[in-house]
Amino acid sequence: MDIATGLAAAKAALEATKAALDLLKRDKVDKQEVTSRVMEMQEMVLRTREALGDALEENRNLREQIAKHDRLKELEADMDYVEDGGFYVKKSEKAAGKNIAYCPLCFKAAHADVPLNPQSGRGHFYCEIHKAGFETAAYRDNAPGAVKKRRFRPGGPWS
């Protein structure tokens, strides 16, 4: 039930109250008619109460949505995408000296800040949820079995 219906019920309850009071002012009081008006008032008050309860529930839900939206905006503002590795880090944690990598798939799909699990070696991370790995250039260059690029040096063995 919406607020307008509840307000209309409250107005009807007030009108029924006035009618009942007018009935009581008469010399000969018709108990049946007064009882009918009182029952009408009770029904209208219950409708009003139901409408207010619905409005309170809707208000609470909207406040929760706003708070969730605000938390997401704060999280988005705090996240910094790291090109080398393809993951996110939080600016606030980085400023505090922490370097925690967060899954970009979790962040984009569920708006969740899910830390990546560090794997063997620096710069290699894994998301258990998406079963996805993320590597930085430093890891790829120093990983076991990585092909090292040989550079030509003048005067070296290939000159």
Describe this structure in words.
With 159 residues, this protein is mostly helical. The chain folds into 2 domains: 72 residues; 60 residues, no CATH class. 56% of the residues lie in helices and 11% in strands. It contains 5 helices and 5 strands. The chain has a 3-stranded antiparallel sheet with strand order 3-4-5. A two-stranded antiparallel ribbon has the order 1-2. Helix 1 runs antiparallel to helix 2. The termini are far apart.
Secondary structure layout plus pairing:
Elements: H1 3-25, H2 31-78, E1 79-82, E2 87-90, H3 91-95, H4 104-110, E3 117-118, E4 124-127, E5 132-135, H5 137-142
Antiparallel strand pairs: 1-2, 3-4, 4-5
Helix pairs in contact: 1-2
Structural class: mainly alpha
Total discrete domains? 2
Distance between the termini: 88 Å
Helix coverage percent: 55-70%
The outline comes out as rod-shaped
Task: Please name the defining characteristics of this protein.
159 residues; mainly alpha; three-stranded antiparallel sheet; two-stranded antiparallel sheet; 5 strands; rod-shaped
Give a summary of the structure in a few sentences:
The chain is mainly α and 159 residues long.
